[in-house]
Amino acid sequence: MQRLPLILGAAAFGALALAAPAQAGCDPKLLNTPAGTAFIYDGKIGEAPARLAIIFRKDGGIEGRYAFATSTAEIPVKGKLAPGSDRFTLTEPGADGKPSATFTGAFSQPVPPSAAVIGIPKPKFYRAPSISPGPVTSPDRAEAFETNCLLISGARQETSGASQDLDFQRNRTLDHPQFGHLYAIAGVADDEILNRRAQAFLQAIADNQREEVVKHFRFPIAFTIGGKFVGIENEKDLLARYDDVFRPDVRKSLARLVPRMMQATEAGIVLAFGIWLDKDGYIISF
Length: 286
Hints:
The chain is of the alpha+beta class. The protein is built from nine helices and 15 strands. The protein has helices at residues 10-19, 28-31, 113-118, 139-147, 191-206, 210-213, 235-240, 242-245, 248-254; strands at residues 22-24, 38-45, 48-56, 61-68, 75-81, 87-93, 99-110, 151-158, 163-174, 221-225, 228-232, 263-265, 268-272, 275-277, 283-285. It has an eight-stranded antiparallel barrel with strand order 2-3-4-5-6-7-8-9. A four-stranded antiparallel beta sheet has the order 12-13-14-15, with no helix packed on it. A two-stranded antiparallel sheet has the order 10-11. The radius of gyration is 20 Å and the shape is elongated. The model is unreliable at 1-20 and 114-143 (pLDDT under 50).
């Protein structure tokens, strides 16, 4: 089976940016993206993997939603970016519509590691790992996009008193009017059905339910085992090679995935680097 092209997500380069010192930096105007563009951030709240999607409004407002790896629904948030500041406040409503938690923090951008180490002045722009900026009007704006509003740090404070640190890095943007139906481009009729199917796959792996795991694949499919492509024709064959495919390090990585607000193209939906789902939620590349 021909393997689909791979898309590099934030996890592949996040260590570079997050390990470097950060400086203030978020001006939505420099993003130069169409109105309604959604910005997708990956990171963690406390120690739990999480994904956050936000839209910057022209009036300084911010709205969006977030989810954990085990969330059964995406949780809405709404707030604002303080005028002339990198700081933000977002409110999370509870079941009764009243605020149940508040996100406070700041956007920032990484300082080049070399500049941080030897103390040289930061250049006008630092070119972080490439992220498609959509339409831009100049090279300067393209470079500004790559670090502008790139990192988020702060805390989530529950009204009950519990507080958790949060850290995120921008992964990608959605510059099409499908924020409410993210997988439409892949031919998916109902995003939530696909989210729950992806979540069921990850849960089956966590629970070591091998017979259930293999039901999530579209056969035939090819895997890389021992540095070689190996064709798997059916569920029985995959069960026979299960330990070769789902090694402990692979299972550990899969346990940190957030199967919501995933990237979608005409070719399918990206659960993680190299793992693609078709419009029915079956895995077609792994």
